[in-house]
Amino acid sequence: MKKNRGRTGRKRRRKHLQNFMYGVNCSHKLEYIKLKKWLKDRGFEDSNLRPAQFWDTGRGLMTTKALQVRELVISLPEKCLLTTDTVLCSCLGEYIMKWKPPISPLIALCTFLIAEKHAGEKSLWKPYLDVLPKTYTCPVCLEQDVVSLLPEPLRKKAEEQRTTVHELYVSSKAFFSSLQSLFAENIGTIFNYSALEWAWCTINTRTIYMKHSQRECFSLEPDVYALAPYLDLLNHSPNVQVKAAFNEQTRSYEIQTNSQCKKYEEVFICYGPHDNQRLLLEYGFVAIDNPHSSVYVSSDTLLKYFPPLDKQRDAKLSILKDHDFLENLTFGWDGPSWRLLTALKLLSLGADEFTCWRRALLGDVISARNEQQTLKITAKICHFLVEETQRVLLQISQLKRDKEKLKKHLTLVEALRLEDLKILQKSAEILCNLNMAT
Fold it and tell me: Mind telling me which residue stretches traverse the membrane in this protein (predicted)?
């Protein structure tokens, strides 16, 4: 008896460890059973992928067999894709066709998602809508208290994103009103701002690229969106490579992996070589140890470390602006970027060296003094950003204790700031070695 119990205990421990390592299979859940049946009715052949919950990435897809390089991971028939064709074939089609000025493909898709979500049980797309996130973590959904904790360039873009969605809502109100005859309820309660925000985030975070020809019933914005049920459960990893495209022969959207994947492991795709600020802005998440990540240096921070009495200061700034050297100045895993060092090299030119500014922009060595001054100021900026990041992290940990309802969003910003801190500390180490060498 004892022996068997020991074996059972070992099995249970092994299973628990496997779950921890690989994720927990969720394909038995009713919403996934219904989704798979719905997809099968539309021609989707059951693949080796299973929905699962992973401890580090949340919901994703695991493979039930080892995947080899160039193996087809998933092939989703055209009938399963939600595009502007889907929208035009629905009861919304005739309203879109006659509306002037024409609406954008994006608004057409948003309108369809809101209408189908409102239809509930009557919607043909219900099995897909039921597995979509109820809420998102894109900056447009974050409270102002949380947005203010983002790094400066991202904070600015977050505010622009909020303005974009708000303007989209205001400019679409008249079109929404034209749909009143399709609904028993007041149109304003169905197509409200929070409904549009949800639909916009669904499209922004989940669509695949699929080009459609230009149609007169839509405005001139590119029609390149397609929502791909089940396929959109695949999470992003910066360390994998995939080939993804619509196959005209099979009339399916296909993904091929260029990386191997072990049995029961999570299958990843790559959204592109994006840094964490871009990932948070567009998709609402942060990738840990992202090799593409950078910490941005604003022009205000740059100028804090230069004497305002430098007679050539304005001329130097003008040169940097004309040659686009005041944007995209960064620290990365390999230290300060060439662009950042070049901008600082030009700002560090002595009065007698100013005529060499063209050479400085090319990265030439101007003088030993200029090189030392550049590295010294770079190290000061790096140190300032380390301290600022640590201060914000302290602020976040205090807010997490005080504001329970903001905890999820605060944890996201904290993850971004912790990644920034790792990059800055690595850069400080590199700069210290460079300073010692010079």
Answer: none
Q: Look up residue 438 and give its DSSP letter.
A: -
421 touches 393 (CB < 8 A): yes
125 with 80: CB under 8 angstroms?
A: no
Q: Which residues contact 421 (CB under 8 A, 6 or more apart)?
A: 386, 389, 390, 393
Sign of the dihedral through C-alpha 20, 22, 23, 25: negative
Bin 421: left if φ > 0, else alpha if -120 < ψ < 50, else beta.
alpha
Beta strands in 94-188 (DSSP E): none
Strands (E), 369-430: none
What is the pLDDT at residue 10?
55
CATH class of 82-227: alpha beta
Tokens for 192? 């409200």
Cα dihedral: 142, 229, 115, 192 (round 10): 0
- Topology of the domain covering 294-437: set domain protein methyltransferase, domain 2 (3.90.1420)
Domain residue spans of the chain = 82-227, 294-437
| Rg, the chain, Cα only | 26
- pLDDT at 250 exceeding the cut of 80: yes
Q: Are 139 and 157 in contact (CB under 8 A)?
A: yes
User: Is this model's pTM higher than 0.70 or not?
Assistant: yes
Closest CA relative to residue 246, chosen from 104, 112, 74, 124: 74
- Upper half-sphere CA count for residue 381 (Cβ side, 13 Å): 30
The residues near 394 (Cβ < 8 Å, ≥ 6 apart) are: none
| CA distance linking residue 345 with residue 375, whole number of Å | 9
What token pair was written down for 392?
A: 């914000």
pLDDT of residue 30: 96
Instruction: Quote the CA–CA distance of 163 and 154 in Å, as a whole number.
Output: 14
